[in-house]
Amino acid sequence: MSDTQNKKTAALEKILDPSKRMLILTHDNPDPDAIAASLGFQYFVKSRYQQEARIAFGGIVGRAENQAMIQHLKIPLMPIEQVNFQDFFLVALIDTQPRTGNNSLPSSVMPDIVLDHHPLRDETKKVPFYDVRERVGSCSAIVTSYLREAEIPIQPRLATALYYGIKSDTQDLGRGSSNLDVQNYMYLFPMVQRELLNRILHPKVSPEYFKLLNRAFKRARIHGSALITGVGRTPNPDIVAEIADMLLRHKGVEWVMVTGTYQKSIILSLRTSDLSGEAGALAQSVVRNIGKAGGHGMSAGGKVDLNGQTIRSVEDLLQDRFLKKVGGINQPAEALV
To answer: Global pTM?
Structure first.
């Protein structure tokens, strides 16, 4: 084991207590990376330290691929509504950090452990143990490194989850991937259950899915190299990010912002093909003083609570801020379809 990993493992060991239960909490509406990394960390602490842990999440798992992942890989997740935090002695945040606004950790609870790959926040520095690697493209790659360094055998089901976590968050190593992502992607591949992976990648979807796509495409407007659209009200907040990924493929488009209304909030996703785009910083600028956001160099997301404001007024403000930042505000609007 490397000296760095030795120090991290020793520091983590001081916090764990096998006689007490741990709660592992993902960000809200968890994606494959958050789900896989949580499953991997649960397996790691159980295998190495005999630490029992449950995995919980806030929001919903809406995207068909994510639902298929949970179903076919039999991943046990507990909705946050079923969690009594007093039942858990330890709390670990995976793929998120304290006070980001994208997880359901109560403000009265400080986590004991944070594993993440987003920019390090000041609140996280107060946590007893944190491992935040901003240059890594996926949390699944970080967790895989823990398992490998400890020489813990990775079973095919877990290998499939971790592989898919890296694959999805880095878009097959094409978005924000690091050497750690590449190494662990290749390491896990021979152990992947390919038939199950295929079922995850190609799930059946509902008619509502196509209606949302149709609405987003009809509303899309291109301003120079920037594209904006909204899906309107949606029962599935994950669709916002999915459509943003889809529209970034449009020839000549370098920036995409997609919004959608979920319950009483506006959800937004930003994507860019610019390797130096700093999408996370841009998203924070777009929601300045009205919401919360975060992300990486090429992808980001955020949320703005309506608080009595109209959907149209909030969306107009977000779109204007976005277009001003990326230089498309004075470009004539062109319909996508």
So the answer is: 0.90
Where are the CATH 3.90.1640.10 domain residues in the chain?
A: 3-201
CA end-to-end span of the chain? 55
Could you tell me if 17 and 89 are in contact, meaning their C-beta atoms sit under 8 angstroms apart?
A: yes
CATH 3.10.310.40 range(s) for the chain read 207-335
The CATH code of domain 3-201 reads 3.90.1640.10
pLDDT, tens only, 309-320: 999 999 999 999
CA triple 145-112-298, angle to 5 deg: 55
Nearest to 302 by CA among 317, 321, 282, 316: 282
Instruction: Return the closest-CA partner of residue 154 out of 40, 310, 4.
Output: 40
The length of the chain, given as a count of residues? 337
Q: How many Å apart are CA 30 and CA 209, to the nearest integer? A: 19
Residue in this structure with the two tokens 């609570």, named with its chain if needed = 305
CB atoms within 10 A of CB 292: 16
Per-residue pLDDT of 255-277, as tens digits, reads 999 999 999 999 999 999 998 88
Tell me how far apart the alpha carbons of residues 278 and 97 are, in angstroms, rounded to a whole number: 19
Indicate the DSSP class of residue 63: S
Is CATH 2.60.40.10 the right assignment for the domain spanning 207-335?
no
| Contact (Cβ atoms closer than 8 angstroms) between residue 293 and residue 303 | yes
* CA pair distance 260, 311, nearest whole angstrom: 9
Q: 95-118 as b/e, with b when 16 or more CB fall inside 10 Å? A: bbbbebebbbbeeeeebbbbbbbb
